Amino acid sequence: MRSAFYISDGTAITSEVFGHALLSLFPTEFEHHTISFIETTEKALAAKERINKATSRGGKPALVFHTFVNNENREIIESCDAVLYNFLEPFVAPLEKELAIKAKPTTHRTHSIHEKSYDYRIEAVNYALTNDDGSNVTNYEEADVILVGVSRSGKTPSSLYLALQYGIKAANYPFTDDDMEELKIPSFLKPFHKKLFGLTIDAQRLIDIRDGRMANSKYSSARQCRMEVREVEKLYKNEQIPFINTTKLSVEEITAKILTETGLQRYKY
Amino acid sequence: MRSAFYISDGTAITSEVFGHALLSLFPTEFEHHTISFIETTEKALAAKERINKATSRGGKPALVFHTFVNNENREIIESCDAVLYNFLEPFVAPLEKELAIKAKPTTHRTHSIHEKSYDYRIEAVNYALTNDDGSNVTNYEEADVILVGVSRSGKTPSSLYLALQYGIKAANYPFTDDDMEELKIPSFLKPFHKKLFGLTIDAQRLIDIRDGRMANSKYSSARQCRMEVREVEKLYKNEQIPFINTTKLSVEEITAKILTETGLQRYKY
What we know:
The structure is a homodimer. Chain A is of the alpha/beta class.
């Protein structure tokens, strides 16, 4: 199998995203390796050794995705027995011309601390944790968005992702069996109607997920899951709460759709 | 100010990472906009209108970062009054040649659900939540890593990030004032010594953070913060627990360093 390396003198997150996006266009398998924080000659030489070994082992040159712009370690990496792809390079000169500014390559800028957005994110994570799963219903004033939905429809991971990635304060509140007889927006959520965003999920997927947690229970029964999904969707429609179906969506897609539909501003860029 | 647009028929996360990495090389400010899920002609035309307005408003052509490969909406976007940057394009033909395979562009592949890694991540988030802050000390068998450190040194956001991004099960355990008189590894953590990873932080930064939460308390006093930091660092050294100082690091950098130092495998690629 062909090896793919994502390498950088920083976190290598940019190289990973770049490499994955490109390789995902090709219907074949790769062996993935990330090497972060190549900041010294020693580390660059160690990386070179790993890459060269992968090439010998695989019989075909490893693919190396990197973002070194001007760096003495770049030469070491470029001397590897591998095919190199640097996604910044083709764009730097055209952008310099367009902006009429010279690029100033500084390592660690993309995924390092930018004071303001950092504090936002930590605060948002704390907010998501203390306002998870209806555990605190007195602090919705502070929320940017309040996710609602039945148990296991994706509320908690989505709230945390909104906080960690975007610094958005997302509370979440679950509709449970007790609410179902006459499902309505609870009184403490009413003043925040405009912040509500609904998640729903296909009943069959919900049955499967709940069955994995509590097999043969009322909670995971087909009858219960179908009823809960039907009731919340009715509520969303009657109360004009925007909602999405999370069945086929990743956390990244759920949160990107929430941002698109609500127009919420991300604090981190 | 020049406008920068990150657009895609998917989440636009790849466009954002690509655009930010490039623009971070230039010492100037931009107005950032993300437009996700451009899946229809209507949405492409609406995006075009927003982009053209930004160009008129700013007096200079907006910068548009996108990853459309083969797509009918691409033509609409390419007809905008803007400068376009497509980071996949320069690399597709060389990679096709190297791999001797034709690229098969499929939208939504990079940040959509890959069944296996999706379940890992949700499970890991649940694990991080139930094993946060020492709230459960009976389930460390299942942990991939156990973060330790004083209160407010970055354990919780790092655990959640490891779970959400990489599907890694990270528990975390806080050393508090009660532990300080004779700081040692608690008995329930001893069997998992090899999973321990320490976080530390500069005392002054710790004072500032704690002061923001509980001003004028023993918890946030200079004396207390200095003592706690000194004691945990002594423990890490005596017990040979690998550790990093999080003071100047973002969550992305902390977790990338943890992966590098522990050699932990990420479940998501």
